Amino acid sequence: MKKKYISALIFILLIILLSINLYINKKYDINLIQYISYSKPLSLEERSYLKEHGSLIYGADQNAPPLRYVDNEDGQYKGAIVDYIKTLSIEIGEPIEIKPLVWEKALSSLAKGKTDICDMFKSKEREKYYLFSKPFYNLRGVILTKKSEDNIKNYKDLINENVAVPKGDYAIEFLKKRSDKINFIFTKDIKRAIKLLKSGKVKAVVGDEPVVSYFVNELNLEDKTKIVNEPLYEKEVVFAVPKSEEKLIRIINKGIFNLKRKGVIQKIQQKWFGISVPISNEGMTEKVVIISAIFAIIYLGITYLFYSWNRTLKKEVKKRTEELYMSRNDLQTTFDGLTHFMIVFNKDYKIVNVNKAFCNFVNKKRENIIGKKDTDFIDMNEIHDIIKNTYINKKRYNKKIKYENRIYEISSFPLKDKEQKIIKVLLMVKDVTNIKIQEKKLMQANKMVAVGQLAAGVAHEIRNPLGLIRNYTYLLKMKFKNIDDSTKKAIKSIESSVDKASDIIDNLLNFSRISGTDKKKIHLKSFVDNILQLERKVMEKQKIDFKAISDDIDLEINQESLKHIIINLISNAIDAMPDGGKLTLKCIKNGNSLFISCSDTGIGISESDLENIFDPFFTNKGLSKGTGLGLYVLYNQVEKSGGEIKVNSKLDKGTTFEIYLPLKGEVENDK
């Protein structure tokens, strides 16, 4: 908490410092650090410099009234800036000699170090020769034309025109940067430039506004000339010193700062200009800034107090709310942490609470579930009975139910109040479908292993007597060569039966040997014929005509997977034709795939059941005729092989399964 208050105080302090800095910058054109530095008296080093240097020389334009000029009556150098120089001399404690010059010579004398100070506009060109102080007044440059001149409204209209200007004036540099097509006529001062305008030798005069206004008045040209409304520029005027005099600039800046604090420039302005043509840039800005800053600080302070109080209140409310939430929602926390469906019912069989898993199951928000009855979500009458029996018998119940081809285990738990009365019932619903599937798969796998072992054992046991029968039949043929036709026919029938039984034994042995997931080379036609041979008796018994179309090719494939696919297809087709029919099985190469098609003319599958036939435990065969896993296993085998399965069926007309198994270049040769 202390850190936050300290941060707040630092923030407010920064706001105050920024406001003070802004005010100082607006008023004195310096920052807060410079303000502190300039407020100090001249240092020993600075006083020593002035003492060694001796009197400073101020050299400037001798004919630029009312800023600076030589009075013709008494020969004294006068003007607003001259008065300012005299005040500055007193402020820094060092005499400043005043030397009136032609403006061009004033600039060159300063650059050569013959003079020490001159006031001027700051520019990039002049920066090559001078160092500049902080600004101490503002000045506008203007364009003077004849009263009748309507074509010159700004500096752009001076292009290709003759313009009079004192040589070395800042206006020359300003205009040359914007156009090189102005014809300048240079003069010694503004007065001579205005006389050229009067005589019609130039179209315009450019110069400092106070000086231009002064000479227009002196020459009685108020009715014959005008100052263009749009100023040429308005810039701050600074003191310039030779490039090497850095110490002098620091001294002058201190003097300017202290004179600004005393309001000297305003007093000089009132003396020379009245209030109509201000050279000071001070006004209401400082007052507006400081008042705005004070209001901003007060506003920020009040805002922060309200913010702190409000945040403290929110923290307290949040703390109490969290405590209440934790005390009342332990059950909800437990609910949402479980993967089973948790549903709480009241005596009216309405849902009063559910966990997140159940919300995800029904794809609805908790607030849209609470208050509904169980039948709004699960079409199971068993739930109603479980809740009712739990309330009546005051004990828990367990029950397994089947819903939408899934198996769920439902357990009820009575929730009691302090008086041990049941006020709610908690149902925990667990999806045990996958467990049941694994159990069935394990049973099926064990059964297949047992069948395989039995088939192998039976085959070996039968093969021995068959060998004896075959051998003795051969001996009979060799011993009794002259026998009647009926005996020959009997011996031939015995041999044919032995061959048939031997083929069945071979199929049984092949069936028992197929296992695992490794791909092995098979002959497709023989593989399919062997599987059909195992189902032949069943199909003949049910009067099913069957036809097998297989490519006579060798390929490498997962025998176990292919065996399951074909057996399940044939078994499903046989079950669909209890009164007989036709079964057609195709196993042919189609590009890089093995195409398997199994068509029957059985009872068919309804459109509503087509979506569910691959779901586990889905069956329409009755309780004793199927587990509902045959097509589920078939679908999984196809998926594992990266294949595709399609079903087309119509009721009472039959069903066709089409399967594509990728071979990936496994076909080795066509026989």
Structural write-up:
With about 675 residues, this protein is of the alpha+beta class. It has five domains: about 1-35 and about 295-330, no CATH class; about 135-235, 3-Layer(aba) Sandwich (D-Maltodextrin-Binding Protein, domain 2), CATH 3.40.190; about 335-430, PAS domain (Beta-Lactamase), CATH 3.30.450; about 430-515, Helix Hairpins, CATH 1.10.287; about 520-670, Histidine kinase-like ATPase, C-terminal domain (Heat Shock Protein 90), CATH 3.30.565. The strands form six sheets. Strands 6, 7, 8, 9, 10, 11, 12 and 13 form an eight-stranded mixed sheet that branches. The longest helix is centred in the last third of the chain and has 47 residues, at about 435-480. The radius of gyration is 56 Å and the shape is elongated. Residues about 665-670 have low confidence and may be disordered.
